[in-house]
Amino acid sequence: MKEDTTLDLGALGLDAGALLLVKRALRALPTGARLEVRGESPDLGHQLRAWARGQGHGYGEQDGRRWISPGGVGRWAGAERAGGVAPAGVVERPSARWGLAARGALVEAGSPALHFSLDEKSMVWSEDAGRLYAQAVAAQWDPETAIPWDAAIPHDEEVEDAVVQVMTYLIENETAALLVPARFLGQLHPHFREVMQLLAVTTADEARHIEVFTRRARLRRTLLGLSTHGGQASLKTLLEEPDFGLASFLLSVLGEGSFLSLLWFLQEHAPDPITRQICKLAAQDEARHVAFGLAHLSRHVSLDPGLRGRLALAVQHRHQSLAQTAGLNEEVFDALVVLAAGGFDPTQIAQGYERVLTLQADMDHGRKLRLERLGFHPEEAAALSALHTRNFM
Amino acid sequence: MTLLLGAVAYDPKVVTIWEGFCAFFAKHGLKADYVLYSNYERQVEALVAGQVHVAWNSPLAHLQTQRLAARRGWSTTAFCMRDTDQDLTSLVLVRRDDPARHLADLKGKVVAVGAPDSPQATLIPLSALAQAGLTPGEDVTVQVHDVLRGKHGDHVGGERDAVRALVRGDADAACVIDGNHLLFTREGALPAGAVRVLYQTPPYDHCVFSALSVGPAEQIHRLKELLLGMSYDDPEVRPLLDLEGLKRWREGRVSGLAQLDEAIERFGTIDGWLAEAGSRL
User: Fold this and answer.
1) A194 and A256 share a domain?
2) Does A310 reside within a domain?
3) Which residue did the predictor score with more confidence, B54 or A79?
4) One domain for residues A219 and A81
5) Closest by Cβ to A54, choosing from B84, B232, B236
6) Residue A1 predicted with pLDDT over 60
7) What CATH superfamily classification does B3-85+205-280 receive?
8) Is A46 found in the same domain as A147?
């Protein structure tokens, strides 16, 4: 038997925090030793006896002295470290039993298994996720103060109609852009913390975009514009894509990539400073969403070159399933022409029309560049870009 | 043959516990199933009637089994128990500023207890009062806090209500098991330092697995082996042990039931039930 260690609690009772000191002393106790607990709290003996019994420790009293003999039962036997807290500590396939535990925590053996379907590093991870998340957090803007809501809207009613139609279209598309990452967020193993955080802030970005587009549309109107079968059919294919890689390719790389061109276009041609500022801020956020999609897919493709073929197939399938739909609604197209024209004079309309064709060419160019970044040959990239949905997103 | 275990459903977690235990037993080659009862009296009669082979019994239910089985000439054993059921004590609490120094000082006062059939919060403490010369109901007013009758005080609610009555001033003393004194403080039902311990009973034991001398000895022996072999270090078993509130199973013993035995003899607690149940044998 080792020599006993003594702990003096003074007047502190077990019902007032002394347990912390008892547990601390037991942790430091040499194997085979007992802990003598002294103290003046009148209930110390009763409470210590009951607590020790519940913990599986022995308890003894003699001549007014009290001892605890550690029971040696180990809750932490077989516990496992859930990877490392730093990004370098991310493992290829985290255990389902790590569940919600912080990456790097010591997880009790036998913890319940939580099955997350996105649990492979190759499918979801990017070394850029942490940096993009930090950038996203730093770039959050407050719609109340970042948009000049009180600025004058000098244009006529027909131009305002065009603005409201474009806003209606943007709200619908941003709703899809919110729901797609939100669905995958619930399937992602929390071990990939930075990706989880980035997807969370992405959905928050989209929520804010929906807010400002709605608020802009309501500035001078109580009714919103049109929503078409073709537009929703196109977005439905995004929502129904069950594969994270394919969905983020279609949504982020191709869809949001095209939207970047659209938002820049509106930043330049919208008729009022409110709409221009909204589109400028939304474009900054969308650029990050596109960057993450590209980053994790580039990594995924480098580990699994077969993915490139699946991405191409996904574009072709989507094109086939949308072949019979109208794509971009005419009203949106016309509204964009009106906004780029700035008036209804035939010369202005000709210019507006030309600008919208240039926009579509810009979108196509951007898609091709991003496809090439994923390793597609230029001809293949051009063919795939041409198959992208006419609804833009 | 499937070994049938009886247990009382005092809480929904009971299903999780016995499903888990039976899966563990099956994994180790013992076919076992469980039957849940709504109260201990029903379970004791079922055990003596041979409807189950063993029963997870409150200490009072074990004594009831002993007495009822004896009428058929059978003996009863307590073959296994939790480590946390050994050497418990009950406390009689008074408010910090109460002038009482001994149990006898409670003469004429109101004593809050748990359920009428609770060994720890009613029968054993009231027996201690009687031993100190105070007849419950005559020398002290007994204030009963009954939550789930027939569960023999397994539900902690009765003791919590008794302590609240003491803190409110509706009672002058409250009887609780020692572990709950600390629990209620941590929960906030009992403000730290608001009460003090007037009396602590000698140690006694609590729940046991009961079996009859006519039970299937081989399977019961195997059950006991498996229980005693359960290790808190085993991550599969640990959550069940946590739910059932133990670190390891121990050999059963009845030496720790003497105080309760004395109490039910003193108060005639189970006489009426025994006569009725005996007539149904």
Assistant:
1) yes
2) yes
3) B54
4) no
5) B84
6) no
7) Periplasmic binding protein-like II (3.40.190.10)
8) no
Task: Determine what percent of chain B is predicted with pLDDT higher than 70.
Answer: 100
Q: DSSP string covering B24-61, please?
A: HHHHTT--EEEEEESSHHHHHHHHHTTSSSEEEE-HHH
Name chain A contacts of B179, Cβ cutoff 8 Å.
Answer: 50-51, 53-54
**Where does CATH 3.40.190.10 sit in chain B?**
3-85+205-280, 90-200
Report yes or no: B141 at the A interface, CB cutoff 8 Å: no
More confident residue, B178 or A388: B178
pLDDT score recorded for residue A73: 67
With respect to residue A392, please indicate whether it lies within any of the assigned structural domains.
no
Euclidean distance between CA atoms A210 and A173, whole angstroms: 9
A53 to B245: CB separation less than 8 angstroms, yes or no: no
Q: What is the mean pLDDT of residues A63-68?
A: 92
CATH number at residue A52: 3.30.110.40
Domain range enclosing A252: 121-387
- Is A15's CB within 8 Å of B186's CB? yes
Determine the Cα angle at B242 with ends B238 and B246, to 5°. Answer: 100
CA–CA distance, A95 with A98 (Å, rounded to integer): 5
Burial class (CB in 10 A: 0-12, 13-18, 19+), A286: buried
Q: Does B190 touch chain A (CB under 8 A)?
A: yes
Regarding whether A148 and A186 lie in a shared domain, the answer is yes
A54 and A92 within one domain = no
Closest CA to A116 of A194, A190, A185, A189: A189
pTM above 0.90, yes or no: no
Structure token digits, residue B225: 């082996």
Q: Are residues A15 and A139 in the same domain?
A: no
**C-alpha gyration radius of chain A:** 30
A109 and A126 belong to one structural domain: no
- Please give the pLDDT value at position A46: 87
Tell me if B5 sits within 8 A of B55, measured CB to CB.
yes
Q: Let me know if residue A241 belongs to a domain.
A: yes
More confident call, A366 vs A15: A366
Residue A8 CB contacts under 8 Å (≥ 6 apart), including other chains: A38, A39
How far apart are the CA of A189 and the nearest CA of chain B, in angstroms? Answer: 22
Instruction: State the ipTM, two decimals.
Output: 0.76
Rounded average pLDDT over B102-129: 96
**How many contacts, defined by CB atoms under 8 Å, are there between A and B?**
72
What are the respective helix, strand and coil percentages of chain B, to the nearest 5? 45, 20, 35
User: DSSP string covering A115-145, please?
Assistant: --SB--HHHH--TTHHHHHHHHHHT---HHH
**Topology of the domain covering B90-200:** D-Maltodextrin-Binding Protein; domain 2 (3.40.190)
- Rg (chain B; Cα; Å): 19
Per-residue pLDDT at B281 = 86
Number of domains in chain A: 3
Same domain (yes/no): A16, A137? no
First to last CA, chain B: 25
Contacts of A21 (CB under 8 A, 6+ apart): A7, A9, A12
In a domain, A253, yes or no: yes
B260 or A231: which leads in pLDDT: B260
pLDDT in tens, B190-225: 888 889 999 999 999 999 999 999 999 999 999 999
